From TrEMBL:
Similarity comment: family membership: Belongs to the AB hydrolase superfamily.
Residues annotated as domain AB hydrolase-1: 297-560
PANTHER family the UniProt entry points to: ESTERASE-RELATED
Protein's UniProt name: AB hydrolase-1 domain-containing protein
Annotated SUPFAM superfamilies: alpha/beta-Hydrolases (SSF53474)
Length: 569
């Protein structure tokens, strides 16, 4: 529970890997396990990793002068004593891998209470905030001054900061903020002395060494004094995203796992993001290990998992020019128990979920967004409502306005599943089954068979390569949580984005299976309406021999189209 009078503070940690620890494993562990586990906590709004710039050369850190610094702001220092954080400090929350890795690092960890700060309103930005992604990518420079003081010296140092440091630092172009901290009430030193840390932040173009001479004229004789300079090189989100994975890892709760070199191209991470209203969205991120690689987001139809894109990705990544991408897939609301919220589900809400996934994974702009059916209208709505966050989109087998009678049609389908009454023992957010889990109502056989017969063209049932894929999609429908299906399908009841089409200024395309009922005609019309007021022309693609899920029936054709569309100049 939050404190009634929360004390603001900072977690300040320097680290130096020993020679026995590879830097690749160090970064894999820190970026995928240690850091995100902390920035998931509500009282830690950010986490930054800095690398020292005052060493003779890179990778020249020592125990006395460690190369790496991590800082985490804390809105309520008392939360360090509570179970969510303490769980991470000992097994099982502190995993065997973490124990083994940290045994090979010199770590100096300080919990510090906030004392004071001065902010430059013209240059300071919250680098963790999504609206400041561009500034974050450019970086941040730091000077830190760490002092070991007697308690009676603290006020003199505080006065010196006000009278000497602040006037000088404010004259340095690029100065952003100066803040200072002292040993937290939570963890007082046994010797009674006080750790005092002064931090000055600058824009990346600034040379922070200009301030260092000021630190040589301290107002008191101190037991220890150390001034350092750093530059920002990694900012944590609320989810793991480091795809330069060295070793597989699974969190003790089973929610996060990292998978080296198992996807069609590169490594993969499976984990979750929690939205502002408490919904838990499982995701899979895979592909290029470059941290700033362009990201392609794929959005499923109702009643399916991200597995509908498996064959598509095999073909997509088989083309060398596409191996520069990362691909993000996720399970939208309406798939699994528990979703974590009872919010009414709308297309607008599903679109905001995509933006929150991008925020959590520190993606300023998706290079591409492709969705099918319910995912198709979600992709369209996201691009129309958040144009700065989506560079290009492809909406598949969908419409810009909900068809009349949609609510009644889906109500009838829900009734079919409810009457059948099938249950499964669903054990996780990812839909895994276990004999130890409690039975949950699922969609079941009858609606699953009705659905796939409607989705796939008849000739696909005669294709021996597609028969197993159709069976796999049918199993996705069969195992969908019935209560969540009942809620999630509300997305399709009442939406209308036709009024936003003409004014769209970005790049869009519409793709549809030729055998998908009346949708081909309607989507060709959409392609002519999108951006019409701006003189833009959207691309229309008809996929012959495919129905409602063309990426399943014709994965190569769809992958080639999407790759060509994204890579076009």
């Amino acid at each position: 529970m939050p404190s009634s009078s929360p004390v603001r503070g900072l977690l300040f940690v320097t680290m130096q890997p020993k020679e026995t620890l590879s830097l690749d494993l160090f970064h894999d562990w820190y970026n995928n396990e240690h850091g995100p586990n902390r920035t998931r906590l509500s009282f830690m709004p950010n986490g930054f990793r800095y690398r020292a710039t005052d060493l003779p050369e890179p990778n020249a850190g020592t125990r006395a002068h460690p190369e790496f610094l991590a800082t985490y702001d804390a809105t309520d220092m008392h939360q360090f004593t509570e179970q969510p954080y303490q769980y991470l400090r000992a097994p099982p929350g502190k995993t065997r891998r973490e124990i083994d890795v940290m045994a090979q690092i010199w770590v100096d960890r300080l919990t510090l209470d906030f004392v004071g700060e001065r902010v430059n309103d013209k240059t300071f930005v919250k680098l963790e905030a999504p609206e400041n992604f561009r500034e974050n990518e450019q970086g941040n420079a730091l000077t830190t001054l760490r002092l070991l003081l007697a308690p009676e010296q603290v006020s003199s140092v505080g006065d010196w900061i006000q009278t000497t440091v602040l006037p000088k630092v404010q004259d340095i172009p690029g100065w952003r903020r100066t803040s200072w901290y002292q040993t937290s009430y939570l963890e007082p030193r046994e010797d009674g002395q006080v750790d005092f840390v002064l931090i000055n932040e600058f824009t990346p173009s600034t040379d922070p060494k200009a301030l260092l001479p000021t630190f040589q004229a301290l107002p008191v004789d101190v037991a220890d004094s150390k001034a350092r300079t750093y530059e920002l090189f990694y900012t944590f989100g609320t989810a793991a995203r480091h795809l330069a994975i060295v070793a597989p890892w699974t969190s003790p709760d089973g929610v996060t796992r990292t998978l080296p070199n198992i996807s069609p191209y590169g490594s993969a991470i499976e984990s979750t993001v929690t939205t502002r209203d408490g919904a838990v969205l499982p995701f899979r991120l895979e592909g290029s290990s470059e941290p700033n690689a362009p990201v392609l987001v794929l959005v499923n139809s109702v009643l399916t998992t991200w597995g509908i894109w498996d064959a598509f990705l095999v073909h997509f990544f088989s083309r060398p020019q596409n191996q520069r991408y990362r691909v993000l897939r996720f399970l939208a609301r309406g798939r699994v128990i528990p979703s974590g919220t009872t919010s009414p589900v709308t297309v607008d809400l599903q679109a905001s979920d995509i933006i929150q996934l991008l925020d959590a994974l520190r993606v300023p702009q998706a290079a591409g967004l492709v969705g099918v059916s319910m995912g198709g209208v979600t992709a369209l709505a996201t691009a129309l409502q958040y144009p700065s966050r989506i560079k290009a989109f492809v909406a598949c087998d969908t419409s810009a306005k909900s068809p009349a009678g949609n609510k009644d049609t889906w109500g009838q389908r829900i009734a079919v599943a409810a009457k059948e009454g099938t249950t499964l023992r669903l054990a996780s957010l990812f839909g895994d089954e276990s004999p130890d889990a409690s039975p949950q109502a699922v969609v079941g056989e009858e609606l699953a068979e009705m659905t796939v017969r409607r989705w796939f063209v008849p000739e696909s049932y005669d294709n021996p390569e597609l028969v197993p894929e159709i069976a796999r999609v049918k199993r996705m429908v069969y195992t969908n949580s019935l209560p969540e299906f009942r809620r999630g399908v509300e997305t399709l009841f009442n939406y209308d984005y036709t009024g936003l089409l003409a004014g769209y200024k970005g790049r869009g395309a519409f793709l549809v299976g030729a055998g998908d009922g009346v949708l081909p005609k309607g989507m060709e019309k959409l392609s002519k309406e999108l951006g019409s007021a701006e003189g833009n022309t959207a691309i229309f693609k008809l996929v012959e021999g495919a129905g409602h899920l063309p990426m399943v029936e014709k994965p190569k054709e769809v992958a080639d189209f999407v790759g060509d569309f994204l890579n076009a100049p």
